Structure formats: C-alpha cells, structure tokens
Amino acid sequence: MNKTSEFDIAGSAVSDMRVAITGAAGSLAADIIPALLEACVELVCVDRTKPAKDLGLEWHICSINDRDALKAAFVGCDAVVHLAGIPLEDEWERILENNIDGTQAVLDTALHAGINKVVLASSIHATGFVGIPADEAVPADVRVRPNTFYGVSKAALEALGSYYHDRYAMNVICLRIASRFSEPQNVRMLSTWLSPEDAGRLFIAALGPQATGFRTIWGVSRNARGYLSAEAGEAIGFHALDDAEVFAEQISEEAESNPLAAESQWDRKYLGGVFSSDEPPLQPYSIDNQEPHQTEGSNK
Ligand SMILES: NC(=O)c1ccc[n+]([C@@H]2O[C@H](COP(=O)([O-])OP(=O)(O)OC[C@H]3O[C@@H](n4cnc5c(N)ncnc54)[C@H](O)[C@@H]3O)[C@@H](O)[C@H]2O)c1
C-alpha cells in the first residue's frame, strides 16, 4: 500500500501495521480511526460496546478486564492503542477497575502477546495541580500532580507504562491529552485544544518508529496561547497544524453571556482548570454544543 496521507507525516512508517485499539467505540476513537485507516493501519477494535455506525472493522466486544478476550483480540498485532476507560471523574471503585486494573490487563496481555509498542491515553489531569507558568512552556515530562481520582488513574497508567518499559523493554508512549474537541468550547481551550485532525497526527506519530522507549507527550494543538511544550511531540514526529486562535473571537463573544465559556480563576492557575478547584465537578458541564459522548473534554 503506497497511499500518501496528510496524517502519515512520518512517511509510510505505520502503513500495514496491525493495531488493536481499545475504547474503539468512544469519541476519541471516532476522531483517530479515520486517520489511522487513511494511513493504512489495519485496526482490531476492542470495546464493551459497538458504535452506532458500523465501521466494517474487526470488532471484539469485551471488557478490557477480560484477559482471555483481550488475548484473542491481540493475536498478530504489532501495537496497541489503549483508550478504554472512564474519561472523567467518578467513584474510586469504578476508576480502579476500569482505568487502573484495566490498563494493567492491557499492558500485561500485550506483553504476553509479544507486542512491544503500546500507546496509552493519559490526560492533562495527571498533572492537574501543576501551576501555569507566566512565560515558559510546561515540559511534557513534568511530574504528576493529579487533581482527581481520574487524574490519579492516569498517573497510575503512566507508572504502569514506565514499569513495563523498564522491566520488559516495552515501548510505551503516554499521550497527556488536553482538550480534544471538534472546536474549543471555552477560553481555556484556546490554550489546551487538541483538534480531531491533530489527534490523528498525534496517534500516528506515537505508533511510528521515532516513538521509542518510555515517553510522555502533550496531546495539544499548535495554539498561539498554548503553554504546553511541543518539544517532546516534535521529537517523535508529531507536528500539530491547528491553532485554536481561529475561534478566539467566537469564544470571547460566547464568554460574555455564557459563564461556562468564560475563563475561571482555576483556568488561569492550574493545568487542570476547574478540575483543580475546591469542588471538582463530578459530571461535565452542560454545554449546548456537545460531542456525541460527554467526556472530560466537556469542561476542560
Ligand atoms: N476526550 C478527551 O478530551 C480526553 C482527554 C484526555 C484523555 N482522554 C482519554 O482518552 C480515552 C478515550 O476518551 P473518550 O473521550 O473517547 O471517552 P469515551 O467515553 O467516549 O470512550 C471510552 C470508551 O471506552 C469504553 N470502555 C470503558 N471502560 C471499558 C472497559 N472496562 N472495557 C472495555 N471498554 C471500556 C467505553 O465503552 C467507551 O466506548 C480515555 O482513556 C480518556 O481518559 C480523553
């Protein structure tokens, strides 16, 4: 397959890879699956549910905590993209089961299937209590300072990835995704937005040959107001193209009448925004222009 793709920025490096993608029925997966297919990646989908639209892909309906089912899904795969999990704050028991035990099951099953590349969906909330610096970019390996149980689960996901790398030489790329949305929803996202197209570029780069070892990478677009360093992403071949600034006028007009679009004091203080406030929301804000799934992106 010689097809060139706007997403396949690392050349044909990911073409013909067979990749298992967990959480394949989710909203982030809906953004990146077209990019992966365009880059000629063969996908094996894993989720406990199926999306409304049949994508015509190999599908394994199971929990990621079902290791036998995961083992069957991972046969012949070159890499795993692990997205499945609870994408926002929840009760500890559910977070523990789905996000922490589930991630360990994915990494361990990948190891025993002989897979040596796993891309993990981490989150900016693993570092939610990191302060926003006045005039420098936050490096992608800034230490974890989670702001919620959800953030703790992403810190644990990164720690598990680090463990499987150090002990078993697995290549584990943790993507600290900021605000993945079709369009920025509020003033904060003018800094933290990750466009759907850049999300595709990010995951392709993470699967590519430059992404080796254990790394944490910011999942963020090239936003003029951004404060998350692009350096680690550039090093693996992730060159974001989109800039939230094109929505700046629209967002500031919206912010005049809609407090959810305005910038809060927490947005100015911490990477985790309102999730780092005294009362982190359990449920996403209600925003008119919602994604098909409500995710942490809703109030990022
Ligand atoms: N969307 C964002 O802005 C964003 C930001 C940072 C991190 N992330 C991370 O990216 C990943 C995907 O997020 P999303 O927005 O697509 O969420 P989503 O809720 O739309 O998708 C998650 C998918 O995982 C599946 N799932 C959950 N637990 C499972 C389990 N135990 N077994 C099998 N399937 C299970 C769900 O059925 C769902 O289809 C999550 O890990 C999330 O934490 C997302």
UniProtKB/TrEMBL annotation:
Keywords of this protein's UniProt record, alphabetized?
NAD, Oxidoreductase
The annotated regions of Basic and acidic residues compositional bias extend over 290-300
- From the UniProt entry, list the residue stretches annotated as the region Disordered: 272-300
Q: Which domain of life is it from?
A: Bacteria
User: Which InterPro entries would you find in this protein's record?
Assistant: Epimerase_deHydtase, NAD(P)-bd_dom_sf
Please tell me whether the keyword NAD is annotated for this protein: yes
Q: Does the keyword Ribosomal protein apply?
A: no
Q: Which residues form the NAD-dependent epimerase/dehydratase domain?
A: 19-184
Which family would the database say this protein is a member of?
Belongs to the NAD(P)-dependent epimerase/dehydratase family.
Q: What's this protein's name?
A: NAD(P)-dependent oxidoreductase
Source organism per entry reads: Paeniglutamicibacter antarcticus
